[in-house]
Request: fold
Amino acid sequence: KNQVEQSPQSLIILEGKNCTLQCNYTVSPFSNLRWYKQDTGRGPVSLTIMTFSENTKSNGRYTATLDADTKQSSLHITASQLSDSASYICVVSPFSGGYNKLIFGAGTRLAVHP
Amino acid sequence: GAVVSQHPSWVICKSGTSVKIECRSLDFQATTMFWYRQFPKQSLMLMATSNEGSKATYEQGVEKDKFLINHASLTLSTLTVTSAHPEDSSFYICSAQPRLSGGLRHNEQFFGPGTRLTVL
Reply:
């Protein structure tokens, strides 16, 4: 069964600190892996998208890594800001040859405190 | 570019009434649109996939007669919750996948801001 599991479920850090969120998946074969940020009451916003051949991608203070051999991905947030408080969702797109039926992780709820 | 809007952003209705939610891709054409439902502190759950000009494909357990989806154009899809009940209260999110020739990544999905439905 295709699954995406994220850890930790929730995380509290102080402003300015770094943190790393984890994502393990069993989807195979897969087309791409994405990280989204979802603010409370809003839709998800794409942070990074990586194909199976990419192992790192950055977007400002967000850096995602991918190890296709171990089926693990991480999202590293540098110098956290209060506005980083949100849910971060790891999403895998199976290689379907057609439209993208995404498989969502449950998300990690990050709270950045001053 | 790649903006998806939803209208309304929130709606409160009485039990038994129908509610229509619109999803629009503002600056690109979308061959496929997706409708998701999200309950508090849970992740998005795919309800249905709609392709322009054809019938929607519903996920297992989603009643097609209750959640009517119309994808009349390449920039608009609507979700109608018929005879809404309190258990239908949720956060409904749409996403749109660009056309292959649209200049955007075809395999990308762009999400709308969501619609909060509360059924009294």
Notes: The interface with chain A takes residues 4, 6, 31-32, 34, 41-46, 49, 51, 91, 93, 95, 97, 105, 107-114, 116 of chain B (CB under 8 Å). The two ends of chain B are 37 Å apart (CA to CA).
